[in-house]
Amino acid sequence: MSTFQAPKGTYDLLPPNSATYLAVREAISGPLKNSGYGYIETPGFENVELFARGVGESTDIVTKEMYAFETKGGDRLALRPEGTASVLRAALEANLHKGGNLPVKLWYSGSYYRYERPQKGRYRHFSQVGAEAIGTEDPALDAELIILADQAYRSLGLRNFRILLNSLGDKECRPVYRAALQDFLRGLDLDDDTRRRVDINPLRVLDDKRESVQRQLTGAPMLRDYLCEACKAYHEQVRELLTAAGVAFEDDEKLVRGLDYYTRTTFEFVHDGLGSQSAVGGGGRYDGLSEMIGGPALPSVGWALGVDRTVLALEAEGIALDIPAATAVYAVPLGEEARRVLFGTVTALRRAGVATDFAYGGKGLKNAMKSANRSGARLALVAGERDLAEGLVQLKDLESGEQTPVALDAVVDEVTRRLG
Ligand code: HAM
Fold this sequence. Notes:
Blueprint: H1 18-33, E1 38-39, E2 45-47, H2 48-54, H3 60-63, E3 68-70, E4 76-79, H4 84-93, E5 104-113, E6 125-134, H5 139-155, E7 161-167, H6 174-185, H7 192-200, H8 202-205, H9 211-216, H10 229-244, E8 250-251, E9 263-271, E10 279-285, H11 289-292, E11 300-306, H12 307-316, E12 329-333, H13 336-351, E13 356-358, H14 365-374, E14 379-383, H15 385-389, E15 392-397, E16 403-407, H16 411-419
Helix pairs in contact: 1-5, 1-12, 5-10
């Protein structure tokens, strides 16, 4: 071991497990790519003010969890704690919303950073695949996103997840509810921290996990009873579209989410095998975010799924993804001349699209065959001086053990034929 270790709350993705992470990213992005979402990549850091205004001054993410720093040039930046604010910032900056083609549909995949207390499923560096549909208010768009996430999870073989759905109202009805909730909460016996939360973000108190708080919340006004007609009708349409698509969900009127920008539709994907960090993904509508960061009114909706937690969910369900072996052919040279010739064959095979690896470092036959087996290759190419003198290499089927000589100049054809 070296003197250095991965920083607290982080871990490295290493082969062979890292292949599962790649496969999960593929599985989540596949349905998006197939539904009109274009790929976007933004910097790993942004002006800290973007998150303060976008994600919200009263959220844990901004007040406690942000990696914020000042650069040598005096800029105040933060490592991105989430993707939505950055993606919207980038879309606005590039005027994507002015192309006359709304919604602007974007997907992304990358690293995010939150200074959280690490535990299983909660890390300081984690990975999300996300999607944002910007500039359109249409319940079918909310439904589309939920359906695509459901499709992605099902394609991975996941079954024990649930979709929690709620509406947080809009700028008409939520303030009325907020005031009513504050009135109620101010009559309760709460600690100072929670009282402060009642002032800045009362809806979050509904989410408080402590029994002592939950007990007092019986009889609290519920947002459902305050939703305006427009929000109710919108929500009902989202629900109907999901039902028609055969996507099961649970109404969860206590689902609040930890980011301030949400309006109307909010949802979370939770997995029952993950313990306390059960949210594998989440999202919702954020009709006011664009204006909050200085843009025009652009009603939008999106989600992000956590790659780390999705991998944990696979483990919890005992699902091993069917990941094809990275190597199809493994070449084993015996001797210096064979090394030179076979290296040429390896290059030719690779140029023909065959995944090929080579026994480097002058290993003996036994060790080299061990590496060949470990690589998962179906075929080995073995060549010694005598074979080469006759213009041959030995093609060995690593499953059956059967070995056949093949003319050197026919190897690429024969290998591609055998691999089908
Ligand atoms: P979020 O709920 O904060 O939403 O994060 C989405 C997912 O990222 C979570 O469900 C979880 O799987 C994963 N995640 C978050 N924090 C951690 C962590 N510390 N360790 C491991 N995984 C984590 C958002 O980020 C919003 N931007 C989603 C969104 C997109 N809303 C609208 N558009």
